[in-house]
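Lab notebook, page 48
Experiment: co-folding of the full assembly
Goal: obtain a model of how the components sit together before planning crosslinking
Operator: M.T.
Materials (sequences as entered):
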Amino acid sequence: MYEEIIKRKNEIIKKAVGIDYSKFEIEGIAFDYERMMKEVSYTFDEIKKIQSETQVGNTPLVELKNLTKLVRMYSKKGKGARIFLKDEATNPSGSFKDRRASVSVYHAKTHNYKGVIAATSGNYGAAVASQAAKYNLRVIIVQETFDSKHIGQPEILEKGRACEAYGAEVVQLTVGPELFYYTLKLLDETGFFDASLYTPFGIAGIETLGYEVATQVKERFGKFPDAVVITHAGGGNVTGTARGLKMAGAVNTKVIGASVDLRGLHMASDHDFNRKSFTTGHTGFGIPFAAYPDRVDVPRNAARSLRYLDRYVLVTQGEVFFTTEALAQVEGMMRGPAGNTSLAAAIGIAKEMDEDDILVVQETEYTGAGKLPSAQLTFAKKMGITVKNGDSLKEDVPGKVIAIPESIEQIGVIEYPLENLKRSYIKEAIKIYDKKEFSETEIEFMAKDTRSTIDEIKERLEVLRNDKIR
Amino acid sequence: MAKKGEWVKIHDVILNPSDRAQSLPDDTKQVPFEMWLNGFLNHDAKIGEIVEITTLSGRKVKGTLVEINPRYTHDFGEPLPELLKIGPILKSMLEKRD
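Observation: model returned without errors.
Model output:
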């Protein structure tokens, strides 16, 4: 059964997303990304209309005045940017994921699918279920929920509850990439639409977020934001937001990706699964998805963060817990954890920026049982993780120690050089396409896909080729 | 005893360890790939019996009956001293500044 379904992957996906990806293929690794984005999805105005009819988007932009004050106490004179937060928790199901779901579910409805399926342990499930409820479509959410002892990550359990509350069938699975097999099986059995996170629909839906950030700041302050910090998981959030910023004309706004540092924990490990206090927005997604975007369920991933990133930073688990607590205690906003990854990074980054600079954190999410730091940390302790106060950047060890800072002074970021990701991209290309020589067309594509020059691609290829020989 | 029409949870083993995907970490390779699913029971049954349910999407699925009226088990956790101290520290800093 397993082999049979996997063999039919392309046929099942083609029917379930209704996209003929083959027409965008050029040669080898190269495909026409911009043409795919333009032809498959909807125009920006159509998406605005789709979202406004389902109460998605147009979320408030909140200035975090107390946090900014606190940051300035630890910044050099004249430093400490103004920090703003886009309150995406005010979307119908409580996160920016409604933007992604709105376009996919609209497409499913208008193309006569009876239902939608999404494989996700995150807020996206609730978003798809919420949108499906509005359009009267059936919905199945497939979650990676438990380890082999049937212990569930509280954040994922909460997301499952939310999906069910919106009327979704929730399939809860144990750890493993076979989730993809089971999702294919369900798509095949039901004929439902595959509301994949990585189709052009899922990415175009986020462009309105970047566009709103740019225009809200411009209207209030007469200039575009100096930088936007975006939590980086599979790369969709970075890609969609950055594209929206550019559409609004904010071409000089720095695009900064941020992930929680969980390096060292294996994504498919039964043991490591419940030793992560973060279920997404961490390095287990951020690094591999940036370096090889096409590792997803659909043939070509519309989320390609290396095309847009100006900088990529990591924060520790302890820093995010501190930030979540600070946001509630001094700004009166109980949110997260997801958006607070980029907020933790923003606190570190704001210290380096001028005080009249504007730094935007572009998402929040609803919180509550299972998601709150108290729920996560109680669970972490139960799983044998040491939770203590301390200098997080030095003492946090993923899977072993969560050190929670006591002061803004201890909040900073870990730089992850983009060059490392761009080299990994080439390394993956060599591995996946099983060749060391790429045509001029492919090299040109790789340059665009990683915001590099052709000479840089050739230089990286040369270095990696020599590495292999040695 | 669960009655027809009651909201229940079933369990099923989707893949035995020997049928699992290649390239899994060793710990994951040794355990089966399992599923839990909620739905309305299609006939009277006892815990531990193989039953059929109708899910919220309208599918009919078979599995072992494990729970009647399954409870959401996650909660808000316990108050943590490591977090509780943060608010007062930050608030006193803001007071000093004001």
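Interpretation: Chain A touches chain B through 65 residues (CB under 8 Å).
Next step: discuss with group before ordering constructs.
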